[in-house]
Amino acid sequence: MTKVSAERRGGLLGVVERQWKNSGYKITSVNPDKENPAIFAETPEGYRMGLTVGGEGQFFLKVATPCVKQSDVARPKTKATGQDYYERKVPRPNVNDAFWSAGDPISSASPKSPSSS
Q1: Which residue(s) pair with 6 in the sheet?
Q2: How many domains does the chain have?
Q3: Which uninterrupted H or E stretch holds 70?
Q4: Which residues 6+ apart lie within 8 Å of 27 measured at CB?
Q5: Residue 108 maps to a domain
Q6: Which of 23, 30, 57, 78 could join 4 in a cystine, given CB atoms 3.0 to 4.6 angstroms apart?
Q7: 8 Å CB contact between 51 and 59
Q8: Domain range holding 17?
Q9: Could you report the per-residue pLDDT of 39-97, keeping only the tens digit for each?
Q10: How far apart are CA 30 and CA 13, in angstroms?
Q11: Which helix (H) or strand (E) holds 14?
Protein backbone atom coordinates (compact mmCIF):
# COMPACT_ATOMS: atom_id res chain seq x y z
CA MET A 1 0.00 0.00 0.00
CA THR A 2 1.26 3.42 -0.94
CA LYS A 3 2.49 5.84 1.71
CA VAL A 4 0.82 9.22 1.25
CA SER A 5 2.86 11.93 2.96
CA ALA A 6 1.19 14.36 5.35
CA GLU A 7 1.93 17.15 2.85
CA ARG A 8 0.04 15.34 0.04
CA ARG A 9 -2.99 13.94 1.87
CA GLY A 10 -5.11 17.07 1.45
CA GLY A 11 -4.21 17.16 -2.24
CA LEU A 12 -5.40 13.59 -2.76
CA LEU A 13 -8.63 14.29 -0.89
CA GLY A 14 -9.11 17.39 -3.08
CA VAL A 15 -8.65 15.38 -6.28
CA VAL A 16 -11.26 12.87 -5.10
CA GLU A 17 -13.66 15.64 -4.02
CA ARG A 18 -13.46 17.33 -7.43
CA GLN A 19 -14.04 14.00 -9.21
CA TRP A 20 -17.03 13.18 -7.03
CA LYS A 21 -18.55 16.63 -7.62
CA ASN A 22 -17.91 16.39 -11.38
CA SER A 23 -19.68 13.01 -11.31
CA GLY A 24 -22.79 14.60 -9.79
CA TYR A 25 -22.21 13.29 -6.26
CA LYS A 26 -23.30 15.43 -3.31
CA ILE A 27 -20.59 16.09 -0.72
CA THR A 28 -22.38 15.37 2.55
CA SER A 29 -19.58 16.05 5.01
CA VAL A 30 -15.91 16.99 5.25
CA ASN A 31 -13.74 16.35 8.29
CA PRO A 32 -10.78 18.77 8.19
CA ASP A 33 -8.97 17.03 11.08
CA LYS A 34 -5.20 17.44 10.69
CA GLU A 35 -4.35 13.81 11.52
CA ASN A 36 -7.34 11.97 10.03
CA PRO A 37 -9.16 14.11 7.46
CA ALA A 38 -12.07 12.61 5.55
CA ILE A 39 -14.68 13.35 2.91
CA PHE A 40 -18.12 11.81 2.51
CA ALA A 41 -20.52 11.85 -0.44
CA GLU A 42 -23.74 10.40 -1.84
CA THR A 43 -24.59 9.51 -5.44
CA PRO A 44 -27.94 10.35 -7.05
CA GLU A 45 -28.75 6.60 -6.83
CA GLY A 46 -28.28 6.59 -3.05
CA TYR A 47 -24.83 5.05 -2.71
CA ARG A 48 -22.88 6.61 0.17
CA MET A 49 -19.11 6.68 0.36
CA GLY A 50 -16.35 7.99 2.50
CA LEU A 51 -12.63 8.42 2.02
CA THR A 52 -10.76 8.63 5.32
CA VAL A 53 -7.08 9.06 6.08
CA GLY A 54 -5.88 6.67 8.77
CA GLY A 55 -2.57 6.09 10.49
CA GLU A 56 0.61 6.74 8.51
CA GLY A 57 -1.44 8.23 5.66
CA GLN A 58 -3.28 5.04 4.80
CA PHE A 59 -6.47 5.83 2.87
CA PHE A 60 -9.68 3.88 3.47
CA LEU A 61 -12.60 3.93 1.02
CA LYS A 62 -15.94 2.73 2.33
CA VAL A 63 -19.09 2.40 0.23
CA ALA A 64 -22.64 1.61 1.36
CA THR A 65 -25.27 0.57 -1.14
CA PRO A 66 -28.90 1.64 -1.07
CA CYS A 67 -31.49 -1.00 -0.19
CA VAL A 68 -31.78 -3.72 -2.80
CA LYS A 69 -34.19 -6.58 -3.47
CA GLN A 70 -33.10 -10.13 -2.68
CA SER A 71 -31.95 -11.89 -5.85
CA ASP A 72 -29.78 -14.79 -6.93
CA VAL A 73 -26.21 -13.84 -7.72
CA ALA A 74 -23.90 -16.13 -9.66
CA ARG A 75 -20.60 -17.05 -8.04
CA PRO A 76 -17.55 -15.32 -9.53
CA LYS A 77 -16.08 -17.11 -12.55
CA THR A 78 -12.53 -15.88 -11.89
CA LYS A 79 -10.36 -16.25 -8.83
CA ALA A 80 -9.64 -13.08 -6.84
CA THR A 81 -6.10 -11.78 -7.35
CA GLY A 82 -5.84 -9.33 -4.45
CA GLN A 83 -4.98 -10.04 -0.84
CA ASP A 84 -7.81 -11.23 1.40
CA TYR A 85 -7.53 -9.43 4.74
CA TYR A 86 -10.75 -10.87 6.17
CA GLU A 87 -10.29 -11.18 9.94
CA ARG A 88 -6.62 -10.17 9.64
CA LYS A 89 -4.78 -6.93 10.31
CA VAL A 90 -4.50 -4.67 7.29
CA PRO A 91 -0.78 -4.03 6.69
CA ARG A 92 0.75 -0.57 7.14
CA PRO A 93 1.60 1.44 4.02
CA ASN A 94 4.97 0.24 2.74
CA VAL A 95 5.34 1.53 -0.83
CA ASN A 96 7.11 4.83 -1.48
CA ASP A 97 5.73 6.63 -4.51
CA ALA A 98 7.78 9.43 -6.08
CA PHE A 99 4.72 11.72 -6.16
CA TRP A 100 2.33 10.74 -3.33
CA SER A 101 5.04 9.98 -0.76
CA ALA A 102 7.00 13.20 -1.43
CA GLY A 103 7.44 15.56 1.51
CA ASP A 104 6.70 18.84 -0.27
CA PRO A 105 3.13 20.15 -0.69
CA ILE A 106 1.44 20.00 -4.07
CA SER A 107 1.71 23.32 -5.87
CA SER A 108 -1.64 24.95 -6.49
CA ALA A 109 -0.26 26.71 -9.55
CA SER A 110 -1.29 25.49 -12.98
CA PRO A 111 1.33 23.50 -14.84
CA LYS A 112 3.37 25.66 -17.16
CA SER A 113 3.24 24.84 -20.83
CA PRO A 114 6.47 24.85 -22.80
CA SER A 115 7.07 28.25 -24.35
CA SER A 116 6.99 28.37 -28.09
CA SER A 117 9.82 30.09 -29.91
Answers
A1: none
A2: 1
A3: none
A4: 17, 20, 21, 39, 40, 41
A5: no
A6: 57
A7: yes
A8: 6-64
A9: 999 999 999 999 999 988 899 999 999 987 888 888 889 988 888 888 888 888 888 88
A10: 10
A11: helix 6-22
